[in-house]
Amino acid sequence: MAKQIQAIRGMNDCLPADTIKWQQVETTLRQLVASYGYQEIRTPIVEMLNLFTRGIGEVTDIVEKEMYCFEDRNGDMLGLRPEGTASTVRAGNEHGLLYNQEQRLWYMGPMFRHERPQKGRYRQFHQFGVEVYGLAGPDIDSEVLLMSAALWEQLGIKEHVRLELNTIGNADERALFRTALIAFLEQHLDKLDEDSKRRLHSNPLRVLDSKDAGVQALLADAPALTDYLGEESKQHFQTLCELLHAAGIEYTVNPRLVRGLDYYNRTVFEWVTDSLGAQGTVLAGGRYDSLVGQLGGKDTPAVGFAMGIERLVLLLDTMGKFDNLPRQADVYLCAMGDAAVAAGLQLAQQLRQQVPGLKVMSHCGGGNFKKQMKRADKSGAELALILGEDELQNGVITVKPLRGGEQSQQTKEQLIESLAALVQN
Known about the structure:
The chain is an alpha+beta fold. α1 (16-35) runs antiparallel to α5 (138-155) and α5 packs parallel to α9. Helices cover 39% and strands 20% of the residues.
């Protein structure tokens, strides 16, 4: 017997019992962004490698350790996309969507990072993201945060997530702070963990995000980024905070919050939870006003966020939010005898056409009445529709409730009317 082939580690199948959960989440996401007037963009999974090295930054963990890279037959270096923003900017530049324009976009699809798989983190994972281009003010920063807050409300997990917010200023302000931070950390090398030492000169702001308790204790005496911010950056952040307060959005200013990608400036934020252990960030984003220019376009202000769908589904599952999932079928049609089978297939088609939204599962594969009813019950359907010789002769369908109620016989017209009421309820 040939050896069974299995999925690549960290690249998981999504089976029917889980896809129904994903579909529910995806439907909520699509309806949410549509209500804000955002449009979908779809970009390729494979891009030129330098798109990510230029956009994300060569000294980030993603580019240094996690990218899936390969050389194609033409000698071009390609990469599987590890995130969605760089690809969205590339598409916007290439197709003339960004310069001197306003775009409110969203995307959803698979991303790839070669990191250690663990609960809520995979090598092929799926992200949903929102991107706004052409708007520089704190009001649009506020809108994307209001949108994310509305999502938690709609999903019923508002009490299980909290917003952390910070400003990291502009490039010049960060450069001054970077110099001061490096000088401070160099005086305390013996207290830095290996990751922090590695990042000290290449990406020192990521030291602020260290998970090492000793490093975090040391940072209490480190220079503060807020001391290096100019008036414009301070005002942008203050106005954003005022807008969130006016909207009733609770948040915590976390001065140690930075993002793992080089392109962020000014506003950065994370929605975090305590319900998933170490994998606490559910949604993250911020402003990235220099990225369009970095990738060959004209300077364009931009803000957005991204979230991992796997982690969101895991959180909803943990909170018991999938207890009332849609059933596989509304009605299950059982047919006894060759004539009834032919008539039943036609009836099922008519019901689907005349009762929009009705889910009809026809029994196939034969079997006695008991077997068919067992299948009907397993489908989760509310009703079993039974066709046999007697029903065909009398022009009726036997309707048997599977979750309690009285059995009845109905004409096709009566059945269509009652099923329309079932779908509406």
